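Per your request, structure below.
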């Protein structure tokens, strides 16, 4: 019989991808470093795949590890749905809100928003799903969720919207990339001619970049490799696989630590983060309260 991987080990692996090292990932999930190293070693043995390359400089994800991280996110998302769903059953008769959010919002903004919301509605059950922007809008339109949060250059069609925050995209490279030594900004033409590590089509990050490059050069970004999460793209950049344009929110920690460096762009890549819903123009109840919280907590 197949031995299932431990969810805590998968959570740790994702944290390592998100925070750039085993020690930082362990701190993020409140696990001692020795236990973290043993947990990852057990996970590698259980899966039969090398997930990390270890050296005196630290540990980084292997190409197979990057793929496993994306799969692990899906598994952890399903586990959260199970836990949140059973919590909703335990609060039968209480307030329930189904929320769907794009990755950038879900990873970097929603945790603080939901913590503030719980102070107002301690008995409410919030069921959260994480998708790319196109999938969030589709879920709102189909009725699969009550409220969505998306990123993109323009308001989606067919839904009500409200701007809750603002963000910008930045060009990042590994510290030894040749662009770190240049004195001029990277132009739109140069960026469009460069193969980039990118998010998948349908993500707000990819749409914003493609729209800006089409407007300036007549062609979208050239994809060296498409990856399904901000963290996977960032880790690939750190590994020297190529440059990428990502949300500043998603690379703030990596920029602060020097794991990646920002290269100035001759483009304006600001964008708005929006709440989306259907029905009456004015939200009411817990959904309205969550949007108000989002507006009061700047990115």
């Amino acid at each position: 019989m197949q031995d299932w991987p431990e969810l805590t080990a998968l959570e740790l692996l994702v944290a390592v991808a998100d925070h750039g090292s085993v020690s930082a990932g362990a701190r993020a999930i409140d696990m001692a470093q020795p236990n973290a190293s043993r947990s990852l070693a057990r996970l590698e043995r259980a899966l039969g795949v090398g997930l990390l390359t270890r050296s005196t400089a630290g540990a980084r994800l292997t190409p197979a590890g990057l793929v496993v991280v994306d799969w692990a996110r899906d598994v952890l998302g399903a586990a959260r749905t199970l836990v949140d769903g059973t919590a909703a059953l335990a609060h039968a008769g209480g307030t329930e809100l189904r929320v769907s959010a794009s990755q950038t919002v879900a990873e970097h903004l929603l945790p603080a928003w939901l913590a503030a919301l719980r102070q107002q509605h301690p008995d409410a059950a919030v069921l959260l799903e994480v998708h790319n922007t196109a999938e969030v809008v589709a879920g709102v339109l189909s009725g699969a969720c009550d409220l969505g949060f998306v990123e993109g250059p323009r308001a989606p069609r067919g839904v009500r919207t409200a701007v809750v925050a603002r963000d910008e995209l930045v060009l990042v490279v590994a510290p030894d990339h040749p662009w770190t030594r240049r004195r001029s900004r990277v132009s739109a033409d140069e960026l469009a001619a460069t193969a980039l590590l990118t998010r998948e089509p349908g993500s707000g990050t990819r749409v914003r970049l493609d729209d800006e490059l089409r407007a300036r050069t007549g062609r979208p970004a050239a994809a060296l490799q498409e990856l399904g999460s901000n963290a996977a793209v960032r880790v690939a950049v750190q590994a020297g696989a190529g440059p990428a344009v990502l949300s500043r929110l998603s690379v703030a920690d990596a920029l602060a630590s020097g794991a990646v460096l920002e290269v100035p762009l001759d483009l304006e890549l600001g964008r708005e983060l929006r709440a989306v819903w259907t029905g009456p123009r004015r939200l009411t109840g817990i959904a309205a309260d969550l949007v108000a919280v989002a507006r009061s907590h700047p990115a």
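The first strand starts at residue 52 and ends at 55.

Regards,
D.
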